Amino acid sequence: MTQVRTPPLLLLRLALVLGALLAACGPGAGPSDEGADQNGGDALNGAQVAAFQDGVAPTAAYAGATDAMLQESTPSTNRGSNTFIQLDRDYQTGSHQSTDGLLRFELSGIPAGATVQSVQLTLNVTNPTSGEGYAVYPARKAWSETAATWNDAAAGSPWSAGGARGSADRGETSFATLNASAVGSSTVTFNAAGVAEVQGWLDTPARNHGLVLDAQTNTDGLVFDTSEVGTAGHRPKLTVTYLLPAPPAGNGTGLLGEYFAGTDLQARLLSRTDAAVAFDWGTGSPAPSVPADGFSVRWSGTVLPLYSETYTFYTQSDDGVRVWINGQAVIDNWTDHASTENSGTFALTAGQKVDVKVEYFENAGAAVAKLSWSSASQTKELIPTSQLFPAAAPPAASTLDETGATLPDTNYPIPAGAIFLSPQGDDSHAGTQAAPVRTLAKAISLVPSGGTVVARGGLYRDGSTSSVYKRFTLQAYPHEQPWFDGTDVVTGWQTDGSGHWKVSWNTPSFCGGHYYDLPYNQQTQTGPCAYLDEYGDPANPAAADPQMVFLDGVYVHEVTTLAEATGKNFFYDQANKVLYLGTNPAGHTVELSARPNALVLQGSPTGGNVIRGIGFKRYASNEYGANATQAAVLANSPNLTFENNVFTLNAGGGLGVADPRGASIHLNVFAKNGGNGMDSNGHEHSGTTPDGIVVDRNIFNANNQERFGPGCGYSCSAAGVKMAHMNGFTLSNNLFENGVVAKGFWCDLACNHGVMVHNIVRNNGDTGLMYEVSDTGIIASNLIYGNGKYGLKIGAANTKVYNNTVVDNGTGALLYDDDRTLGVGGWSDVGPDTVNLDFSNNLISGGTKMIQAWRTSATAPNTGPNTFFSGLDANAFYRPSGAPAALYEWRDGATAVFASCTALQNAHGWEGDCLDFTSGGDPFFVDAAAHDYRVRPDSAAYESGKPLPSDVAAALGVPSGQPVSRGALDWPGRP
């Protein structure tokens, strides 16, 4: 073979690039395409293949390969810019002098901890060789491409022997033999020593000095292209196959498991941390306080993925199950079925936690609930405890500020890609944390479906009646208080010369856009601002008008004539669109409600919007309940979550839940709203999936400030919470208090399957808790005291009223049948007549009357107390001195008064185990004066009640079949 000039040996430099780029690297062009597939390997076992070639791989930007030729005949000349390297033991021919080569690739982008499986070196040979071939050694001395010569590794750093042949210059063991016998691409595979050397470079990058290429005797030179050659695909390439490091195991402890009575998460029985969702209970129970059948569970928290890949989540369930990942539904099989596997996918990022929520119900028979996952790099397995992190355990409502003046402190994690909102933002910005937008509408337009909007603290004078058809989360920035405010600061006031100050004020968006259709004091049963029979209380004749004025932050009362607009009053001339103050606004801040809504959520068929940590105040919402402006926030899509929010000082309603299916309303404060704190309308007996709304750990304080309802006859609804037509709901651990001439909680018009447990209902001007013309319910362990009319008002069939403590209300309880009857007189949305009503283990003390059991009409085809009880036993009464003589007022046609339990038992057979105290001090409570209504251990009521039915026991989280104390067993803040 003809001898040609051979360049010196190259050192390979292994330059690592970003892990994300490694995954995306593509094969080099031209002859260098031979060798390992850039993206190959066994993905399931974590194997990855990455190539390093200047200008080609892992991207065209890679320039981490360096090389140089060392030439003995010119020992001080640097040849790092050569486009070729020649390896030869006789160069020039007959001189018996040599040329060697150096190569180095930078590899720092391969993940730390990766395990090298194989290494290949590919060269584009332009002059082949024969003979013994050329060896590939590890370089042991740092060298410079621009300074390396036969004598020196770098400036001022000589080789220990020329040509990098000394023991301090290179290792003794060759990794491969270069023996290309043809022109073109030539690939050699490193031996075990070579693989170990590259592993050492990954483990200790400072050791990576690349390779020395040399031969012992071969005088038939080998020539190949360097990284300086013009054709990128001809440049040297190193291919490394490696196993990804085992992802670091998390230190999770599992998920929060909340266990509920009923198949739609009706009443929380217990909360605990479950190490995994990996249960096969057979026909047994998850815990002693949970029934074996007819229960449901919510597991919540975060999951820590191991790989940046699309994961498949699997459930094995008997019966219903649904799963959300980062708020997006991935599995939904909410049906009664035998053990079945379902699956759904979601793209995750390694090391980045995402929210996970699993809901499950068991109807009857076997019970199975399991959650597994898999990905391209991970075999299918139950999600292990280490990768699961529980949500916070449910706190008590008593931690909230019942005045509504402050928001709960929150610390929600901020997901990647969140859109940021700030009062100091600008809608021309991109919505990043550094460049937030200003308006909620703009933030919603930018956030992708399922994404998150993060609101910084401060005041947003913002809102819209436009419907939003997108699933997203709106949450507070950690430890900040964002308030959305329906008012604007108004200036430009002028005196009218008669002791008033006026300003032009036009609000066409009020009352569903029909505010100016009728005078606010001439409404009809179709509004548009209020129902005709709901306003007109002499104490507030302007109630129907959603106009509001705040002077230095204090609410100003509205009057109906200009002459009355004196002092701290205002009058709105609706015809002329002029608002008058009775106080000189000079030196004061005057704010007028300018917007009826902050937000109208229409969502999507699956809903899933989450609002948390946000305040909504002073919106001009209206009492009329059939338009989009009925509440500061109107939510009309399923699976909504509202938590840690405040709704306060709004003209009408605070929150309207128009689609309650799957809604979760918890840890919110509804305070001092003009109308109701919250309203919701369900799906009655529609045959659809039960609504399943859960309202727990909220505070409803001093709502109905505008005094709606005292004279109503048809559209009555004033309450802290009013529900209607609700098909399955849970009301637990809430505080309903100080409702102005209003009820605390009221469910009306064919509500069914309601569970109302562990609530405090106190000091409401009307009734405490009311379940009316409805069917099937559990009302148990509620503490009800100080309400103006009735503590309990129950007119419902198939309902169990157990273990309530009812103290110092107008009347302890009214148990009745309404004169409305399904199918009679056009009524199509009322429950059945009152039958199968079980009223037992209740403790009633004080008040003007104890129990009224009434048939409301002697002529209507309904029932009376002679027929509507299935249980009336083990109740306990205390009538202190001066209390009414009547224990039971019994109206079934004629009215009978029973002064004692014995008299009732003799007449009707009920109350055989009644307790009735009419003299002496309080026989029941630890300290009634301090509202400590625990039953004393020395009381006759202590552990003397009758055993609870299984469904009531399950709802209360206590064993069934065992005696319990009479009265409430637990309530928020119980000592």
Share of β-strand residues: 35-45%
How many H/I helical runs?
7
Shape: elongated
Distance between the termini: 100 Å
Structural class: mainly beta
Oligomeric status of the shown chains?
single chain
Low-confidence stretches: 1-45
Range of helix content: under 10%
Mean pLDDT figure: 89
- Give the radius of gyration: 39 Å
- What about the largest sheet? 24 strands, mixed
Q: Total number of β-strand segments?
A: 74
Summarize the structure.
This protein is mostly beta strands.
Distinctive features:
single chain; 975 residues; mainly beta; Immunoglobulin-like; 24-stranded mixed sheet; 13-stranded parallel sheet; 7 helices; 5% helix; disordered N terminus
Can you tell me about this structure?
The model is unreliable at 1-45 (pLDDT under 50). It contains seven helices and 74 strands. Among the domains are: 9-243, no CATH class; 255-390, Toxin - Anthrax Protective Antigen, domain 1, CATH 3.90.182; 488-593, Immunoglobulin-like (Sandwich), CATH 2.60.40. By secondary structure, the protein is mostly beta strands. The chain has a 24-stranded mixed beta sheet that branches. Strands 30-33-44-47-50-53-56-59-61-63-66-69-72 form a 13-stranded parallel beta sheet, with no helix packed on it.
